[in-house]
């Protein structure tokens, strides 16, 4: 009872609070399609400030906003949140996310092409997170010589190598991975391709660190490694200033198929070896938590506003028609 009495004595007099209608009206003028932005842990909405704090601030130039909230307790702040410039908020691109589950590689390649044309006009950014059935793509740094089975052996496994215009080498896609495709204007996301790859790399490294996977990058930003074994591959392409492709993260795939690849390792002294997050952690990874952290980290790293999240392919308006048009042409 004594502790409760002490806490009550620290509560401010809320009868002096007033609503700052001008700030609220300015916030309402923002695009209503965008979700509320969080700044310094506080939602940007109508802000309440004590009347005596406003008077002190205008009279002496000193802020008394610290008295607006209790000074004790786990959820108390000593200062009011700083409101960002409204023009800056409007200029931030919005991130639209597509959580698509298991998708064919051809479908995603077609979806990227459509998104490039759409996002050129809107200036916004899209992130696709999905899995692929067994497939093999070869980037600009890859070679048919890096694939050990001959064509007949690959056909038995249902594999047909596909050349794609991204950076990086041979990527073996299969269930148990997270394939990420970030599509947007390079001039909005970074100052150069090099900086974009650095930001992409740092975002994924922070996510893996949250799952106790101590990965590191390399000089050419083509992959992330744990103990010399690759856990994630990175590669992008730029078309008319629109960057696309992204990364392939080994979460918990079957590792035997990787033996079909014979690529040089990061130091070129021996063949590339691969591992997975679950192999490093020696315990499962929650797919929902992993995808949630990836979305959150991409928003923060590239300074993007939260946008809608689609969980079906119909978000591509519509994806099947896009695939048929591009694949059959």
Describe the structure.
This protein has 329 residues and is of the alpha+beta class. Helices cover 33% and strands 23% of the residues. The strands form 4 sheets. Strands 11-12-13-10-6-5-14 form a 7-stranded mixed beta sheet. A 3-stranded mixed beta sheet has the order 8-7-9, with no helix packed on it. The longest helix has 18 residues, at 105-122. The protein is globular.
Gyration radius (Cα, Å) is 25 Å
Largest sheet: 7 strands, mixed
Q: How would you state the average pLDDT, rounded?
A: 77
What structural class should be given to the helix and strand makeup? alpha+beta
String of helices and strands: HEHEEEHHEHEEHEEEHHEEEHHEH
Number of E-type strands: 14
Strand order of the largest sheet: 11-12-13-10-6-5-14
**Gross geometry:** globular
Query: First CA to last CA: what distance?
Result: 77 Å
Low-confidence stretches: 1-8, 11-24, 26-79, 314-329
The number of distinct helices, counting runs of at least 4 residues, comes to 11
Strand content: 15-25%
The helix fraction, in percent, is 25-40%
């Amino acid at each position: 009872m004594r502790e409760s009495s002490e806490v009550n004595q620290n509560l401010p007099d809320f009868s002096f609070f007033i609503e700052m209608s001008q700030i609220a009206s300015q916030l309402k003028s923002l695009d209503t399609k965008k979700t509320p932005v969080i700044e310094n842990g506080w939602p940007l909405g109508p802000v309440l400030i004590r009347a005596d704090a406003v008077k002190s601030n205008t009279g002496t130039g000193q802020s008394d906003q610290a008295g607006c909230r209790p000074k004790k307790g786990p959820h108390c702040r000593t200062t009011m949140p700083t409101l960002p410039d409204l023009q800056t908020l409007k200029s931030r691109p919005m991130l639209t996310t597509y959580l698509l589950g298991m998708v064919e590689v051809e479908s995603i390649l077609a979806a990227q092409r459509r998104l490039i044309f759409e996002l050129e006009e809107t200036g916004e950014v899209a992130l696709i997170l999905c899995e692929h059935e067994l497939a093999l793509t070869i980037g600009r740094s890859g070679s048919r010589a890096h694939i050990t089975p001959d064509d007949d052996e690959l056909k038995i496994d249902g594999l047909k190598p596909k050349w794609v215009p991204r950076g990086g080498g041979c990527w073996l896609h299969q269930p148990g991975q997270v394939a990420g495709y970030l599509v947007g204007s390079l001039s909005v996301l970074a100052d150069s391709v090099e900086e974009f790859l650095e930001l992409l790399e740092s975002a994924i490294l922070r996510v893996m660190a949250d799952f106790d996977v101590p990965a590191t990058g390399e000089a050419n930003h083509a992959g992330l490694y744990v103990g010399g074994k690759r856990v994630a591959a990175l590669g992008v392409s730029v078309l008319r200033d629109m960057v696309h492709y992204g990364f392939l993260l080994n979460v918990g795939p079957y590792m035997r198929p990787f033996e079909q690849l014979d690529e040089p390792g990061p130091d070129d002294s021996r063949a590339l070896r691969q591992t997975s997050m679950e192999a490093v952690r020696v315990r499962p990874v929650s797919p929902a938590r992993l995808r949630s952290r990836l979305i959150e980290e991409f928003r923060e790293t590239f300074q993007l506003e939260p946008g809608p999240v689609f969980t079906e392919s119909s978000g591509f308006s519509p994806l099947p028609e896009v695939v048929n048009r591009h694949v059959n042409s």
